[in-house]
């Protein structure tokens, strides 16, 4: 049993990872922007009681993150895993000529600086054995598979993959695993109705990776949810 912090746990992949982690007996701190959340997460809270804790968490709010981390520290709490899941997909299919640079700034703020802020404030809490930091990335961040259009999203995920490698080199000696994981094209608000992958399926693979049950393949720590190497 580990304590797992998940950002963006209100819906989509985030809530499915919370559900999967709870079913496996982990304790989950579900980071949500709106604590009065409805739907699946509220049902999980009712089902699992104190095994699930809802925490107000906006990855763009560094002071709020610092406060939450300080309050957990004060309670003597620890973490086994952090899953940086929250992200936005803005300016889809927009050409460079039409790109609003504010969308780029916002995407970097949430998709890259968000995970960096979270790790900055919560890393010292990752003291449980075989700790893991999972950055939910995307095939859209793969330089080898670059496609036109999703500039803010794609580039923010490429940079997130670099953060994964840098962080890994910093914390490997503490026995902490750091991975960038492409969760597949999933049926969520972001992925849309036509997506082939059920987010619960991805959640299972990501939990297997976080628990060290699947050993990731490849030179760089960028894999899909089954542990298969993704092209950098
Ligand atoms: N869906 C796909 O096909 C796909 C493919 C590749 C990678 N991914 C990646 O998988 C992850 C999950 O995607 P998803 O499909 O579940 O997305 P989603 O359905 O759009 O859900 C996004 C989640 O992020 C949260 N969020 C957004 N801005 C936030 C902020 N500033 N602070 C904290 N939370 C914030 C949202 O919270 P609110 O409810 O408060 O808005 C929501 O919980 C993302 O990292 C995404 O890039 C998804």
One letter per element, helices H and strands E, the order comes to EHEHEHEHHEHEHE
Radius of gyration: 17 Å
**Which whole number gives the mean pLDDT?**
97
Proportion in helices: 25-40%
| Percent strand | 5-15%
Pairing-aware structural class of the strands and helices? Answer: alpha/beta
- Measured distance between first and last alpha carbons: 32 Å
CATH first level: which class?
Alpha Beta
Ligands in the model, by name, code or SMILES, are: NADP nicotinamide-adenine-dinucleotide phosphate
Task: Give start-end ranges of low-pLDDT stretches.
Answer: none
**The named CATH superfamily:** NAD(P)-binding Rossmann-like Domain
What does this structure look like?
The protein has 7 helices and 7 strands; from the N terminus they run E-H-E-H-E-H-E-H-H-E-H-E-H-E. It has a single domain (3-224), classed as 3-Layer(aba) Sandwich (Rossmann fold). The relative contact order is 0.15. With 232 residues, it is an alpha/beta fold. Strands 3-2-1-4-5-6-7 form a 7-stranded parallel β-sheet, sandwiched between helices. The mean pLDDT is 97. NADP nicotinamide-adenine-dinucleotide phosphate binds at residues 7-8, 10-14, 33-34, 57-60, 85-88, 110, 136, 138, 182-183, 185-186, 188-191, 195.
């Amino acid at each position: 049993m580990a304590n797992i912090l998940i950002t963006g746990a209100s819906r989509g992949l985030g809530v499915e990872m919370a559900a999967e982690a709870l079913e496996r007996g982990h304790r989950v701190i579900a980071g949500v922007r709106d604590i009065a959340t409805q739907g699946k997460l509220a049902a999980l809270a009712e089902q699992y009681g104190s095994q699930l804790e809802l925490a107000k968490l906006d990855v763009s709010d560094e002071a709020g993150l610092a406060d939450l981390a300080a309050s957990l520290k004060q309670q003597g709490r620890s973490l086994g895993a952090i899953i940086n899941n929250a992200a936005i997909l803005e300016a889809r299919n927009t050409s460079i000529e039409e790109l609003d640079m504010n969308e780029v700034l916002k995407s970097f703020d949430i998709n890259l600086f968000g995970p960096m802020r979270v790790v900055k404030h919560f890393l010292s809490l990752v003291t449980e054995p075989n700790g893991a930091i999972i950055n939910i990335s995307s095939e859209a961040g793969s330089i080898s598979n670059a496609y036109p259009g999703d500039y803010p999203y794609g580039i923010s995920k490429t940079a997130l993959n670099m953060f994964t490698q840098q962080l890994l080199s910093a914390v490997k000696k503490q026995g902490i695993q750091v991975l960038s994981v492409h969760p597949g094209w999933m049926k969520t608000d972001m992925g849309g109705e036509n997506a082939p992958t059920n987010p619960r399926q991805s959640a299972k693979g990501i939990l297997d990776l976080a628990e060290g049950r699947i050993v990731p393949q490849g030179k760089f720590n960028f894999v899909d949810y089954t542990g298969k190497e993704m092209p950098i």
